[in-house]
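subagent[fold] <- orchestrator: predict structure for attached chain, return tokens only, no commentary.
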Amino acid sequence: MKAPAIGSSPTRVDGPAKLRGAAPYAMEHPQRDPLYAFAIQSTISRGRIREIDTAVAERIDGVVAVLTHHNAPRLAVDDDNELFILQNDEIAFRGQVIGAVVATSLEVACEAVDRVRVTYDERPADAEFSADHPDLYTPDEVSGGFPAGTSIGDVEAAMAIAPVTIDHTYTTAMVHNNPMEPHATIAHWTDDSLVLFDSTQGPHVVRAKIAPLFGLDPEQVRVIAPFVGGGFGSKGEPHANIVLAAMAATLSGGRPVKLPLTRQQLFALAGYRTPTSQRVRLGAHPDGTLTAIAHDAIAQASTVKEFAEPTAIVTRMMYSAAHRSTSHRFVALDVGVSSWMRAPGHCPGMFAAETAMDELAVTLGMDPIALRVHNEPEVDPESGHPFSTRGLVECLRSGAQRFGWAERDPAPRSRREGRWLIGSGVAAATYPADTSAGNSARVRRTGDRYEVAIDAVDIGTGTWTTLGQIAADALEVDHDRIDLRIGDSDLPKGTVAGGSAGMASWGSAVVAAAGAFRDRFGPDPADGAEITVQAPEFPGRENFSTHAFGAHFVEVRVNVDTAEIRVPRVVSVFGAGRIINPRTARSQFIGAVTMGLSMALFEQSEFDPRLGMVVNHDLAGYHLAVNADIGEIDVSWIDEHDPRLNPMGSKGIGEIGIVGSAAAVGNAIYHATGVRVRHVPIHGEDLLGEL
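subagent[fold] -> orchestrator:
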């Protein structure tokens, strides 16, 4: 019998092409005689364009056209204000797209943009986020379709009589996704059809959004994205740059137009994670039993379009308590549009919630692992549904053993080596295990091989390899007999690579198509045999609460003289269903944990409300964790198979590693120093006066 491909660790099939530079990213697809476009952006935060003078720019040798609101194509629909660009003279935020130069080279286009003169009628702008802003409002729902607020029992009464309470406010900074490959698009009109080579997490999503803007049927737009250099959510939905590229191509005389965004432009045009202010209150008995939980989140949105970060939703299902409430409020500011970023809501929400749990453990004199285990719910506290699987306790216990938690002295500042204080902290992790409906896959016999096609996307996660493994098992053939086709909206529909739902959704479609193929054509199908199948709904799933879980253990060292913070060791354990490929899974977990450490200690978009812009808008000023900042990261997973989710028994793994990891760092810093910091990033100056 053929050994199963799922659970094995073949090397990445796309690796050799990437190492040789033969894997084309968005700007690298060969085009005949292309033109280049560069965006013109507003330099005020609010107002209108009185005049835009393009005469000097148009006379520069090599400039083909200058696109503004005066000559831009009229868009057919206006249901997404972020994409409804160049239709009027209004300015809603600094950095807004107000035009583009189309030229024979990118250098010429950049020079010409500098020669465009814009006169504004400026209006006062409100661009400063604060938790006590007078215009805070409660939305109808938060992003993802969740209710903005929930309430079970009487939280206020329960808090009033609780023997032990925690009541603190935690803040997280504005941060930006910053994928290695900046957003970029090649647009080419041929007759009444549009081809887009785009750096996107979802070709079908781009097609569905762009086609109606230009009055086209979806079949008239083709979006191609075989290789994508990261996204972290920022490429999950189209931004204005894609519309701008398509508009610029209408002025190109039929030539393709390449439009990249610079690193600096990403900070205004490609989304970000909103800053948050979160009040978390916990009420408990002296034995650690939680009686009340309240999590109230405040964040910002844009006047252009509301993205309501679902910060507090994680608290609704994490721990048992008879009385519980959550709320979300936002203020709409004259700023760019926030958007999806790795583990939206859960990432900032669990920093606050898991820091509060650590504070409760300290107040009770209770081990923080024991506190979490003590409040482990038997069913989902919000829905009442049983969990399909819930491996949190096993992750905590396995991680504690791997980390050596039993040797820890719980007293702060209890361990020291020379001038270094050493501490350890723990935090839990969770993320929904979802699938998206409507995915289809095609299986075709081609000689002695099988072509498997679906509009999935590999954003660096390993889809080229892991989806082929699923197909090999479903077809009962060796992995090297699979030819996978992905990253093209002409292929059968696949969902976006995001929400930790990509592989579960695409894999379900591939398994369904492979099963139907074998049923129809038998074990030895003729060359050319082909079938396309849409994945059915997985039976009974709606009766369960489906989540992945994990636990992070972090060791920190803090220098008593300089307050320098180092993280030499992390141990993270996950319960994420059946692991498709241990090699690529380990990479995903390590990357997400690293991103959590980066959030904890480095990342902050410094927004100046006077200028209406992020002032550290490049990788020199926006600090990220690099190799020198990262010590040993030991990731593992428990043996888990979830038969209630999808035919593979797997759960998404792309995001859970960032959830809770920043809290574990902060909790470890408290243990090392005795100083509780309730914001991220945590810098040395937060500790200097206390050491």
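orchestrator: received. Logging for downstream: The chain has a mean pLDDT of 97. The longest strand covers residues 290-302.
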